[in-house]
Amino acid sequence: MADKPAALPSIDDDLAGRPRLRLPQVTPRSVMEDETINANTADLARSWPAVSTHQPAAVKAVEPVKPETVFDSVRLNIPAYLNKQLSRDAVEKDCTKTHLILQALAQAGYEIDPADMAPDRRGGKK
Fold this sequence. Notes:
- There is one protein chain.
- Helices cover 33% and strands 0% of the residues.
- It is mainly alpha-helical.
- The protein has a domain at 80-116.
- It is elongated.
- The N and C termini lie far apart (77 Å).
């Protein structure tokens, strides 16, 4: 006959709850200024030279990023010969038909932001 398998260990200890961490007793750290952090980093770098040779770089002011222009899609009917001309010019000038139309509108006096006059806004082309 086969031997009896060994008895399994009790799971009572695993099921008994663990003491909960009392978060109200934990006090948050005070906020440190950048200068204080940089000084602490420099002190650590001097005391542990093999660990770090970090020199904090001067922080440059960040210019606010202008939100990207939202473009609306406009469908218009133009003669086939004009579409062929636009297509041919776009290929020759390595731009899009939208760019050619925006250029024509700008020359006609419409106000167009120069940042929106990218020859090719398509993402895949490099």
